[in-house]
TrEMBL record:
Keyword Acyltransferase among UniProt keywords: yes
Family to which this protein belongs: Belongs to the thiolase-like superfamily. Beta-ketoacyl-ACP synthases family.
Pfam families reported in the protein's UniProt record: ketoacyl-synt, Ketoacyl-synt_C
Name listed for the protein in its UniProt record: Beta-ketoacyl-[acyl-carrier-protein] synthase family protein
Amino acid sequence: MTGRHGGDGALAVTGIGLVTPAGIGTRRTWEGVCAGRSTAARDPELAGLPVDFACRVPGFDPHRHVPGPRPWRHDRFTQFALAAAHEAVADAQLDPAGWDAARVSVVLGSAAGGAGTLEAQHHKLLHEGHRAVSPFTLPAFLPNMAAGQLAIALRAHGPALHTATACASGATALITAAMLLNEDACDIAVAGGADAMVTPLCAAAFGTLGALSRRSGEPAAACRPFDRDRDGLVLAEGAGVLVLEREKDAAARHAPVHARLTGHGSSADAHHLVTPDPEGRGLHRAVRLALRDACADVHSVDHVNAHGTGTVLNDRTEAAVLHRVFGTSPPSVTSAKGVLGHTMGAAGAVEAALTVLSVEHQLVPPTANFVRPEPAMAPVDVVHTAPRRQAIRTALSISCGFGGHHAVLAFAPASTTT
């Protein structure tokens, strides 16, 4: 196979920043995911709804965790993005005061933007009148504002873009950033996703769709990716940001490299607004495109970080596609959503970061709440109970979204070629 990224054109992941229900910061998130304990708990803001639990980022204080003045002006999703991005830039040993700002790009994905701001301000309009609506409403809730605010904060004058492919948005942002780097539109890309959709309206909407787990009596056991008894996803919030550079540029400045982004693939089901194609044709195509772009064959893929929502249809379709691609030599599979819940537009970036960490540490976190597979589901090697130490030459991170969007990223260790 031939591809753009699998050889000398691979991109270096030089920085990682995470804000998730497992903790604020990459270290805490990684430790929490490796521990395999669900973060789902009852949420006072969802009281009275049929599903009253979710996965919240614990102890997040905008005044402490968001650099810059007046963080209260930003919606929660932008606050998460700013915190994660600053960690990623620092991790990459980059200083915005000293870089060529015209050559720095920002690409952030979100499924909903400032949903919390919109709900709160709409409530004010209805109950207090138009004069009570904040002048910061539009700058806070517009989905592109996380990218805009981050460009301001980092003094980044290159392309500043927003991607929206529902729950694949963060992965699509990373793919877009990779394209910008490979087209020489920038030298550094700060890319990822953020969402804060743990709100009454979003919870009610997902609930009426039948997408949420109803295990109100045991929230910590609610999200069960690939398990026989799964009954839906758990709403969550957070952000994930990676710093990407061309490998030669990272080497020239002696930058730390966590892993290499070697390829990617995107596709659409063109089937249904919220239901995956039962044959998995779109996802299968995206996986194959990512492998081709990475110059990798199926035998070199040792691990897959699955979309793994814990919904009946997604897990069944995803398992069938993985079995179709990899056959009788399946890679290890994990889903972080058993621990973190579904962080929506942030999920693709958060899980890409976790895939990078798996490659870097040669360690696969367990899938929380997986006990036994559905008998009718195609067999997949789900890592559960405890982390698995293994050799990982190539790892895939899979993301899917309402509307039939698919985005697949391929990563390899920093010290080897695929």
